[in-house]
Every structure is written in structure tokens, then in C-alpha cells.
Design goal:
Strand order of the largest sheet: 1-2-3
Helix content: 40-55%
CATH topology of one domain: CBS-domain
CATH architecture of one domain: Roll
Radius of gyration: 20 Å
CATH superfamily of one domain: CBS-domain
Number of helices: 5
Largest sheet: 3 strands, mixed
Order of helices and strands: EHEEHHEHEEH
Length: about 160
């Protein structure tokens, strides 16, 4: 994963996105989260042969909005709980710009879309931390090599 903060997010986003439809049940969505070991599902609609993201449903949404309020899970659908204020980013957007957007909006994940608004993937804070920790490690190695080279030349 070289390229760092100038890399387009389409190159590092997770393209294996777990999706649901807005009419699906909360129980179905929760089972998918468990099966695929994810904390969110992207709510989509099919338009003209494209998968278009409409919103996102997180495990936290289910806990805070339903379980903590003792709402019977069979009485609500994904549409009733999902976050409709979906924040998305173009697959061509740079890493640094995306981080700034996520920070400004206080979000831990962002849906990645193509130029037509079709779902490409999802990018999480964990994906970004993995990329940036690799970049920092490379920087630290550079510093150590420079130090070793100086030691060799000065005896």
C-alpha cells in the first residue's frame, strides 16, 4: 500500500461491502453483520443496473435506537433505523482530503462511490490507520538508515 496521503481512496477502500435493502428486517441486517464480522451494512437501492448507496446501518444504531429502547426488532425495518444522511466520497478523492472530511463530520467510515454515484466500497478509520502506520514505519526506517550511514562514515 504505497502512495500515502496522495493515493486515491478507491485504491485502499474495502470493496467487499455487506449490503442490505431498506425494506429488509433489522434481524436480517444484524445476522449479516454477525456472519461477516462487520459493524455496519450499507443500505442500497438498484437503479438502472447500478447499486446506489442510500444510507448506512451500524451495530451501534441497533443497540442505541432499538435494544436500549426495548423496541421489538420485528416491528421495524432497516429503513426505520438507518442513517439517511449518508456521507460518501468519490473513489478519486485523496486520502488526506478524506481524512479531513471524516474528522470534520465526526464519522468513522465513509462510503466510496464512482462518478455515477454507484457503490465502490467503504473506507473505515481502521483502513486509514493501517495505511498511515505503514507510512510512519517507512519514515522511521529512513531515519534509522540515515543514522546507520552516518555511523559508518564517521567511524
Amino acid at each position: 500500500m504505497k502512495g500515502g496521503v496522495n493515493m486515491p481512496i478507491g485504491e485502499i477502500c474495502n470493496r467487499e461491502v455487506v449490503i442490505v435493502r431498506k425494506e429488509d428486517s433489522i434481524l436480517e441486517a444484524a445476522k449479516l453483520m454477525r456472519e461477516y464480522h462487520v459493524g455496519d451494512v450499507v443500505v442500497v437501492d438498484d437503479r438502472e443496473g447500478r447499486v446506489i448507496p442510500l444510507g448506512i446501518l451500524t451495530d451501534r444504531d441497533i443497540v442505541v435506537e432499538l435494544i436500549a429502547k426495548e423496541v421489538p426488532l420485528d416491528s421495524v425495518s432497516v429503513q426505520d433505523v438507518m442513517s439517511e444522511d449518508l456521507i460518501s466520497a468519490s473513489e478519486n478523492r485523496g486520502v488526506w482530503d478524506t481524512i479531513q472530511c471524516m474528522r470534520a463530520r465526526g464519522i468513522r467510515r465513509i462510503v466510496v462511490v464512482d462518478d455515477g454515484g454507484g457503490l465502490v466500497g467503504i473506507l473505515s478509520i481502521d483502513d486509514l490507520l493501517e495505511l498511515l502506520s505503514g507510512e510512519l514505519s517507512d519514515l522511521a526506517k529512513l531515519s534509522m538508515k540515515e543514522w546507520d550511514r552516518e555511523k559508518e562514515t564517521r567511524g
